[in-house]
Amino acid sequence: MLNTKIHSISQQLQHYAINCSISYFLLICILCISFSSAAVTSVNDLKSQQKNEILFNIHAYYVEDLALQQSFETTQPFEALLAKLDPYSKYLDEKELEALFSSTNGRYTGLGIEVKEQEKQIIILNAIKNSPAAIAGVQKNDIVLAVNQQSVVNKDINQVTSMIRNSDTATVILTIKRNDAIQPIDFALTRTEISLESVTSSLSEFGIGYLAINNFSNNTLHEVARQITKLQSNYGNSLTGLVLDLRDNPGGTLQSAVAVSDLFLQSGTIVTTRGRFYDANQSFSAKKGDILNGAPIVVLINENSASAAEILAAALKDNHRATLIGSQSFGKGSVQSLIPLGNGNTALKLTTAKYFTPSGQSIDGIGITPDWAINQTALSQIDKVVIIKNEQGNGNRMWPALSPGDPLLLKAQQLLTMK
C-alpha cells in the first residue's frame, strides 16, 4: 500500500514538472544567492508591451484585487507598480529564472550562502555544506558588510543579491563582520555548481530516527522515503519514533511539502489554498498509508522555518500526528505562481493564493505555535549533523550522549522514549 502511495505521489510530481512550462507553476522559493551564464533582461529595460503583459497577469491572478491602471506607457514608472505587490512577488530575469529552476531541482551555481535581512543588515543564515562559503569558513550569523569592497550598509537583500550576481569576476570578495573578531574578515569565494542536500538522517540506539529536511525540492519526497527506509534497515525493525527537524528550513515547492506530509498521514486535509482565480483554490488531502506505521513523531521548528516547512509542520500538528517543539515559525503563508513571460526566458513570480492549515488558520505573518515552546539559537545544518552523527555499522551512541547540547533534541528524545 505504501509503495503504491509513493509511486502515485511520484507520478503526480512528474506530471507537475512536465506541465510547469505551460501552466502556473506553484512554488515557494528557497532563499539562495544563485548565478548562471544566461543574459540579463533588467526590469528597467522592459518595453511597454512587456510591462502590459505583466500588468495583465497582476490584474488576473494576484491574490488581492488591486486598483491599478489598465496599461503602461514607456514613460510611466514601472517600479511603482511592483512596489504595490507583496515582497514575494517580483519580475525574474533570465539569470534569476534559471537559478530558481536549478534550486528546485537540487542544484545551482553560486557561493553557497543563505541570507536574511534583519534590522537593515544582511545576515548569513547558513553556509551550504561543501560550498565555497562553507569551505572558506563563512559562518551562520556573520554579517555582510561589503561585496567586492563596495559597502552594503543600508542596502536591502535584493540590492545585495544583485551586487553579487552581477559581479564582473567569478571570484566574489565578501567582507564579513563576526562577533568574536576584532576586525572585519574578507572571504574570496569562487562560484561553483553546488548540489543541495535536501535530507540528512541518523539513528539512535533506541530505534528513534532523526531526519533533517533542509529545503523542499523536486527530489525531497524520494530522499525522505529513501532515508527512512535506510534507518529502518539499519535498526532491523520499524522505527520506534522519529524526530523531524525543520529548523532553518526556508521552504521550497508546495507540491513537495504536500507529498512529504502525505507520507506520514493516513487521512485528513494537508493544506488548502485560496485565491482570486479558479485554479488557485485547491484542497490537498492525505491518502491511506503511513511510512512509519503510526510511530510517534516530534517536529522541531524555529523562527526560520518557513512556507513549505510550515505546511508540513501544521499538517502533522493539526491532524494530531506529531508534537511540535521549538519557537514560533516564520509565518510565510502565501503561494507564488511562476508565470512565463514573452518567449519564456523571463517570468513573473506572483503571489496568487494564501494557504490555510487543516484547522482553517492562516499563518501569514503569524507563524505556527509549537506545543512545547523552547527558545534556542538555531543550529546550522552542519552543527545538527555533528550532534547526532551516525557512522553506519558503529552502533550509534552519540545522539543520546550529545543531545544535552541541543535542548530541542533532548526534549524530543524525552517525549519519544516516554511514548
Report on the architecture of this protein:
With 419 residues, this protein is of the alpha+beta class. Helix content is 30%, strand content 25%. The chain has helices at 2-18, 48-61, 78-83, 94-104, 132-136, 157-165, 220-235, 254-264, 308-318, 381-387, 398-402, 407-418; strands spanning 25-27, 34-35, 90-92, 107-110, 113-118, 121-127, 143-147, 150-151, 171-177, 185-190, 192-195, 199-203, 208-213, 241-245, 269-274, 282-285, 297-301, 322-326, 334-341, 346-356, 372-373. The strands form four sheets. Strands 1, 3, 15, 16, 19 and 20 form a six-stranded antiparallel beta sheet that branches. Strands 5, 6, 7, 8, 9 and 10 form a six-stranded antiparallel beta sheet that branches. A hairpin with a 4-residue loop joins β12 (199-203) and β13. Residues 7-41, 378-398 and 400-404 have low confidence and may be disordered.
